[in-house]
Every structure is written in C-alpha cells, then in structure tokens.
Amino acid sequence: MSEDNLPFLEIQPYIADLAERLMEHEDREVADLATEMLDWIDVFNATGIGRLVDLIRDWRGEVFLEAAAADPLVGPLLSVYGLGEGIDVDRGRAAVQAALTEVRPYLHSHGGDMEVVDVVDGVVRLKLHGSCDGCTASATTIAERVESVLREGWVDFRRIEVEEMTAEAHPPPAPGAVVTGLQIRPSDDHGR
Asked: Pick the residue with more confidence: 182 or 170?
C-alpha cells in the first residue's frame, strides 16, 4: 500500500497490522528481530516526544500542549505515549500508590517514607522523608523497588524524579537499628 492513498488517521492501524504480521512471521529469528526493532523504535519515540513535552512545559507551554493534544494529527501521537492532555492521570496515580504500598513496609522498617508530589505526563515526582532523606541507598531502592513495579504496571510511566534531599548524605540504617516505639506482644486467649 502506498502512503499516497492512505488517509493519515488510518496510518496507525496500518502500522499496527504490519507490526503484528512481522511479529507472527514463521521464521522466529525474523519475528524476534522485528519485535526488538519495534521496541527500540517505541523507546526512541517515547523518550524524544516526552522530552519535547518537558521542554514545552518548561517554557510554560501548557496552552500550546492543550492545542496540540486537541489537534486531530498531533493529539493521537501524544496519546500513544501517554503525553499531553490525553493521559489517564487516575490510572497513573493508582499505579504509583500501588508501587508505594508495596515498598512502604521496607521503607518503614528503616524509618523512612516517600511522598508523591506530582504525577504529570508519566513522570512521578517524589519527596523522601525520614531516614530515606539523604540515604545513599535511596536511588537503588527507588530503581529496584518503585520503578520496577511502575514499569510493569503502568504503560505511560516514563521516569521518577526525586526532589532535592534536605538531610546530609548518610548510609542506610542497619536492620533493626530503627526504633519505632511500637511493642508487639502476644495476644491472650480472648484475641486481645
């Protein structure tokens, strides 16, 4: 099919059909290479377009982005990558809260916590509290425990940004070194 006779709004479904046919190719090596190539093209486009949206927002271009998101040609492109006004913010916030719910017991066991400051265009801004603020292992905790859950559970996730730490840099506390003041005692026969 030639691009001369394909209306613009039919290009995306046509690309999806071509991609599906390539990924189902009878030669597994061809199918795997096609899948890998499509993944890399997707990463390249999502990162580049996401950066463009960041630059526009930095220049107070919200009105421009609203107009771009409403445009019949640009809007679908932004929405494919969860950018602009078409992003499902509620789904993003739910994914972020699920990730933090999963990691909070670990954070609390070390006397720390994380707060969601903002979620915009797939970028999650966090503020660290307690022993997490200034902890030299916080980047690892965020990457291994929070980012990994977000990458699996939220397709529009792009990255995490952490607000500037206010505490001096320090190593993570040793297990059991944080005293919470809570005492756990066995219950009596009446469940108390």
From this structure: 170
